[in-house]
Amino acid sequence: MKFGRKRPAPVELEWEKVCRKEERWIEKRMTRKEPLLEKRLENLVPASLKETLDGAFCKAFRLIFDKGGGVVEKTLQKEKRQQDFLINQYANEIRQSRRSLRAFSKKAASSGRKNLFISGASGVGMGVLGIGIPDVPVFIGMALKAIYETALDYGFTYESEEERYFILLLISGAMSHGTDLLELSRRADEYMESVSLPEHYSRSEQIRQTAAVLSEELLLMKFIQGIPLVGAAGGVFDAVWMKQITEYAELKYRKRFLMTVFKE
């Protein structure tokens, strides 16, 4: 994105900073590093588990999008986040400094840390009890909660079909590697420019694609999480995956926010 000569320097500097950070984030994920535990146990995973996990993720997304939005929304402190955004927005309009721009990301980072703690504790608890695949709706609910909070902290909504498409792209991108990650990042950036659905868009197909990415990445650890007591080791990875999702979502929403500041 190019900035005009009359654009305030703080916006340009923050844009360059977030772009560099995103480049480093993507660079680290160009190749997938297979955990040692995964190498040792991958032959033990039943062939049918991938299909079962695909279905569980699809069902979880549909359930929350269609019926569970209100439940997730109750945990967001939505009105307070919207008020905090307006306060930060007003302060930035007055000061127009890097510090006032960073107030938005500080708020989002604080939300992310809380969600990581909750996700990790939930994952370990489920693992101790030997709950793996049944944990999927909880994991998806936590992921959507984290993204919804990030959206609100940067002044965006999350309820529309367009925003749900963007959110599914973020989750897919956060869990992808290599050329798949690059393509998903490109599609997310394209959406941030147009804020419109692609031609012939199908929500069910996008959910299916996102579910496939998640089940591919989480397959072994969800299998381990389903083993009582031992499953705690797999449950720990819930926090690792949540960190990936929240970091990537924060980068994209910050870029999107700075784009709106630039256009004002």
UniProtKB/TrEMBL annotation:
The chain crosses the membrane at residues 116-144. InterPro entries: EcsC. Keywords: Membrane, Transmembrane, Transmembrane helix. Pfam families: EcsC. This is EcsC family protein. It comes from Candidatus Copromonas faecavium (nom. illeg.).
